[in-house]
Amino acid sequence: MTENTDSYEQNRTKFIQNALIDGKKQNIYIDESGIIRSVGTDIGKEFRSEAECIIDASGMVAIPGLVNTHTHAAMSLLRGYADDMHLQEWLSEKIWPLEAHLTGEDVYWGTKLASLEMIRSGTTSFNDMYFFMKDAARAVDESGIRATFCHGFIDFDSPEKRENEIAATKDLVSHIKSLQNPRLKAAVGPHAPYTVSREGLEWCAEFSETEDIMLHIHLSETEGEVEGCIEKHGMRPAAFLDSCGCLSEHTLAAHCCWLDDDECRLLGSRNVSVSHNPSSNMKLAVKRALPYQALKDAGVNITLGTDGCSSNNNLDMFEEMKFAALLQKFFWNSDTLLPADEAFSMATSNGAKALGVSTGTIQEGLPADIVLIDTATPSMVPMHNCVSNIVYSCSGGAVDTVICDGRILMSDKTIPGEAEILGKAQEIASQLVERANNPQ
Ligand SMILES: C[C@H]1O[C@@H](n2cnc3c(O)ncnc32)[C@H](O)[C@@H]1O
Ligand SMILES: [Zn+2]
């Protein structure tokens, strides 16, 4: 329950009282610039009387905002458009032909819808690869959450396409940097080793280095990709990317299902972060799960992502934590692999580290990205183990309040403007499919 009707405004000091953190009732004070100034069991009267907004979190668990490290947000418009297909056919026969008709307005509303869904389910940061990304950034700016944007760079070995992709990437990066909004970051996004030429990958690696930005790429999602890379380049995909300079501490590699042990060690030695996308991998039947133990042994920072809504089909990171823990146990036949606390770290602190954002924990001096989960819901009762309930039993529907950068984005499960976004996204998605089916 939030006292103060203007609580959605930023720049108001906030006092969250009686939130359960690490099993203890604690209070959190957030200053006017959205920073956690104090957190603990004994911070009290002085901060409470100073605060312009009191949030009573009695009966709620406070966790850091969740971090989704691999998605294509505007693909929310393609939810349910092409299901139950093989990955390469799904992409080349259904998704790419539809995406050829996308407009900036589609991406704007698709990203508004995705941001809404992420806020509802407790995500406050995401890593996005798609097209018309200036429009995506406008949508995210309005929604109040954090994101890193890259243009999906695909040149298919064509020098002309490569020049266009370089221009689109440079344009996006300079645009995002010019906004000087700490919630919005730019990245470079070579789509995958099978869609980008050696020259394109080398350019992306150098650009990421000189601009000091993340390099976001799909890697070894399918066995066919690995075979194709060996045939074309005489190397497995990770070695090929390394030869192009694409593996560094800037790199976030999504999927990584078909890495062998040497590749896991290579990623570890280059300080690459990996995004595990269990729902998408199961739905697209990629036939192998992330080699979690080998990556962990190699010291790789392992994070969690939903992938796009066309291969998931939602953006609920609670579901993703559970699927990650279950898929690892099932595929690698190990009941102790990927325990709940590791799934939780993947979705919070590991994700924040990969995206270079100073969130992911509730700690003094850090930006206030905080999610309150209602414990008065059947899937949170009893609470023998809070992290177990968060990972294995509850879902995004239990989220009551979301704060990002000190600003309340959802309170009492209410997000201002939600109905308009739902209506407009439905309309825009129908028009997109109509245009694709009846090209002029
Ligand atoms: C940015 C492009 O990436 C496409 N995409 C979405 N999901 C996947 C996936 O699982 N593997 C490869 N490529 C994917 C998206 O449709 C855009 O074309
Ligand atoms: Zn993807």
TrEMBL record:
<dbReference type="GO" id="GO:0090613">
    <property type="term" value="F:5'-deoxyadenosine deaminase activity"/>
</dbReference>
<dbReference type="GO" id="GO:0006556">
    <property type="term" value="P:S-adenosylmethionine biosynthetic process"/>
</dbReference>
<feature type="binding site">
    <location>
        <position position="307"/>
    </location>
    <ligand>
        <name>Zn(2+)</name>
    </ligand>
</feature>
<feature type="binding site">
    <location>
        <position position="70"/>
    </location>
    <ligand>
        <name>Zn(2+)</name>
    </ligand>
</feature>
<dbReference type="GO" id="GO:0090614">
    <property type="term" value="F:5'-methylthioadenosine deaminase activity"/>
</dbReference>
<dbReference type="InterPro" id="IPR023512">
    <property type="entry name" value="Deaminase_MtaD/DadD"/>
</dbReference>
<feature type="binding site">
    <location>
        <position position="72"/>
    </location>
    <ligand>
        <name>Zn(2+)</name>
    </ligand>
</feature>
<dbReference type="GO" id="GO:0004000">
    <property type="term" value="F:adenosine deaminase activity"/>
</dbReference>
<dbReference type="Pfam" id="PF01979">
    <property type="entry name" value="Amidohydro_1"/>
</dbReference>
<comment type="pathway">
    <text>Amino-acid biosynthesis; S-adenosyl-L-methionine biosynthesis.</text>
</comment>
<dbReference type="GO" id="GO:0046872">
    <property type="term" value="F:metal ion binding"/>
</dbReference>
<dbReference type="InterPro" id="IPR011059">
    <property type="entry name" value="Metal-dep_hydrolase_composite"/>
</dbReference>
<feature type="binding site">
    <location>
        <position position="218"/>
    </location>
    <ligand>
        <name>Zn(2+)</name>
    </ligand>
</feature>
<dbReference type="GO" id="GO:0050270">
    <property type="term" value="F:S-adenosylhomocysteine deaminase activity"/>
</dbReference>
<dbReference type="InterPro" id="IPR032466">
    <property type="entry name" value="Metal_Hydrolase"/>
</dbReference>
<keyword id="KW-0862">Zinc</keyword>
<keyword id="KW-0479">Metal-binding</keyword>
<feature type="binding site">
    <location>
        <position position="99"/>
    </location>
    <ligand>
        <name>substrate</name>
    </ligand>
</feature>
<comment type="subunit">
    <text>Homotetramer.</text>
</comment>
<dbReference type="InterPro" id="IPR006680">
    <property type="entry name" value="Amidohydro-rel"/>
</dbReference>
<feature type="binding site">
    <location>
        <position position="307"/>
    </location>
    <ligand>
        <name>substrate</name>
    </ligand>
</feature>
<feature type="binding site">
    <location>
        <position position="221"/>
    </location>
    <ligand>
        <name>substrate</name>
    </ligand>
</feature>
<comment type="similarity">
    <text>Belongs to the metallo-dependent hydrolases superfamily. MTA/SAH deaminase family.</text>
</comment>
<protein>
    <recommendedName>
        <fullName>5'-deoxyadenosine deaminase</fullName>
        <ecNumber>3.5.4.41</ecNumber>
        <ecNumber>3.5.4.31</ecNumber>
        <ecNumber>3.5.4.4</ecNumber>
        <ecNumber>3.5.4.28</ecNumber>
    </recommendedName>
</protein>
<keyword id="KW-0378">Hydrolase</keyword>
<dbReference type="InterPro" id="IPR050287">
    <property type="entry name" value="MTA/SAH_deaminase"/>
</dbReference>
<feature type="domain" description="Amidohydrolase-related">
    <location>
        <begin position="62"/>
        <end position="408"/>
    </location>
</feature>
<feature type="binding site">
    <location>
        <position position="191"/>
    </location>
    <ligand>
        <name>substrate</name>
    </ligand>
</feature>
<comment type="function">
    <text>Catalyzes the deamination of three SAM-derived enzymatic products, namely 5'-deoxyadenosine, S-adenosyl-L-homocysteine, and 5'-methylthioadenosine, to produce the inosine analogs. Can also deaminate adenosine. The preferred substrate for this enzyme is 5'-deoxyadenosine, but all these substrates are efficiently deaminated. Likely functions in a S-adenosyl-L-methionine (SAM) recycling pathway from S-adenosyl-L-homocysteine (SAH) produced from SAM-dependent methylation reactions.</text>
</comment>
